[in-house]
Amino acid sequence: MSATTPIAAIGRSVLGALALIGRIARFAADTLSHAVRPPFYWREFGHALVQIGWLSLPVVGLTALFTGGALALQIYAGGSRFNAEAVVPSIVAIGMVRELGPVLGGLMVAARVASSIAAEIGTMKVTEQIDALVTLSTHPMKYLTLPRVLAATLAVPILVGVGDAIGIMGGYMVGVTRLGFNPGTYLNNTVDFLEAWDVVSGLVKGAAFGFIVAVMGCFHGMHSGRGAQGVGRATKSAVVSASILILAANYLLTELFFSA
Amino acid sequence: MITLRDVHKAFGYNHVLRGVTLDVPKGESMVIIGGSGTGKSVALKCILGLVQPDSGSIEVDGRDVASGDRDAFLARFGMLFQGGALFDSLPVWQNVAFRLVRGSLKRPKAEAREIAIEKLRRVGLKPDQADLFPAELSGGMQKRVGLARAIAADPEIIFFDEPTTGLDPIMSGVINELIREIVVEMGATAMAITHDMTSVRAIADKVAMLHDGVIQWTGPVSQLDASGDPYLDQFIHGRAEGPIEAVR
Fold it and tell me: Cβ contact (<8 Å) for A129 and B87?
């Protein structure tokens, strides 16, 4: 083995990763370019809205409810070390709407939706349904990708908003029933310290995460390998890459929105 | 008329098509035969633009398939896929009428459903099967639905990819007869790829054998048994010994 072999391997990996990023960026740009060129498949868009938005509500709502409750307990336990228990309502609210609501909501949607999109489109690819679409004069990006990407970009911020409210309610329930907070004071503290930008920034993050989830699901589905193993690998790649990109995008957006 | 001239296509190191040259006259039924993995499906997909050839030219009625209005070009074709390639999420009638409820051939839903049911009847399916989903159908019925979808918009050219694969001999015979009847009735140009020699004799006017990435032999189906070509003889008689290397 030559001394340069490990360096060459690292170089190949870096080039491979850069090429993949380039392909994903082109795929996303290609998808968006179809938004301004007719036809637009409204029925597919409506179906995707229901699948991605409405049917994700239980999982996102439950995640937010338990997270809000646990957050209240943690902040109370931590705050009691320096007599700051009163900050529980405001920190729960700010923590939920700025970070935990969008990030956990995005990750739950990634697990549920990126996998299902990749598996569905991947199966369509290996069973020649995508080729059949083309022969029937229907562009797969217009018919399969664009409706899902637009639906996810629209639905995830709404899910995040609902999740924020449920998470704050989880914190309220724990605060009032377990930690002895006065209900009126808890709600007043929640509202008083929460700013509009806290909520809006979380919703913008939700839109970005929805876009990432759908693009990764569609990209990996469209590039699925053959057979059950190929579809399985595409599904796994979609969830893993969507989750990592959500966490990376969350850091970048937080830096953009809140760094001094 | 479909014309392929010196078409090459490689996937990585696998050089599948090595200069395919073939003419399919208008209104004729051409069947391409050849072993598995010899590039028969790739050749069909190159014509449809589903796969881009590396070099060579493909023309339909004198026009390069890569140029011009793609929708108008594809509207001239119907294709029956090997596994049916029916859309799982749509009921049978919407699969058949897919092209008739969207795009340039769009018409009212009720009319599209009427046409779909008529095409289903033509391939031997009952109207009450129109609202079933593809997963609820047997393999033979799925092939029939695929055939109904291929002819739904009355195409000038119809492609059949392994039309009898996975079917029992009787159902294969039924599908072969249907294909032959429909092609003659519509006056369409047909191109099929298959390994099934019964299918070849039932639906072909002309036969082309693809081997080693080139057309090894082409001629009328009536000359199939008297070609004198050792490759074709070995293939049509299913012999293990001969110029085509059989992996054991």
Answer: yes
- This model of the complex carries an ipTM of 0.87
Are B41 and B92 within one domain? no
Token representation of residue A116: 């299902």
Give the ranges where B123-162 is alpha helix by DSSP (H): 139-151
Number of domains in chain B: 2
**What pTM does this model have?**
0.88
Range of the domain at B233: 1-76+157-180+190-238
Which residue does chain B place closest to A127, by CA atoms? B85
Structure tokens at A43: 């029925």
Which candidate from A41, A134, A137 shows the least CB-CB separation from B50? A134
Residues B161 and B208 in one domain: yes
Residue B65 lies in a domain: yes
From first to last of the 248 residues of chain B, give the pLDDT tens digit. 899 999 999 999 899 999 999 999 999 999 999 988 889 999 999 999 889 999 999 999 988 988 888 888 888 999 999 888 999 999 999 999 999 988 777 889 999 999 999 999 888 889 999 999 999 998 888 988 999 999 998 899 999 998 888 888 888 888 898 889 888 888 899 999 998 899 999 999 999 999 999 999 999 999 988 888 999 999 988 888 888 876 56
Residue B94 lies in a domain: yes
Q: B 125-154 residues with CB below 8 A of A?
A: 149
Pinpoint the alpha helices (H) of chain A: 5-33, 42-52, 57-79, 88-95, 101-109, 115-126, 129-135, 140, 146-177, 183-193, 196-222, 227-258
Sign of CA dihedral A75, A76, A77, A79: positive
Q: Give B153→chain A minimum CA distance, Å.
A: 10
- How close does chain B come to A133, measured CA to CA in Å? 9
CA gap A33, A29 in Å, rounded? 6
Chain B residue numbers touching A222 (CB-CB < 8 A): none
Same structural domain, B61 and B92: no
Q: Which residue of B has its CA nearest to A138?
A: B103
* Record: contact B45-A41, CB cut-off 8 A: no
Q: Does A46 touch chain B (CB under 8 A)?
A: no
Same domain, B228 and B206: yes
- Could you tell me if B39 and B65 lie in one domain? yes
Residues B92 and B202 in one domain: no
Tell me which of B154, B171, B206 is where a domain ends.
B154
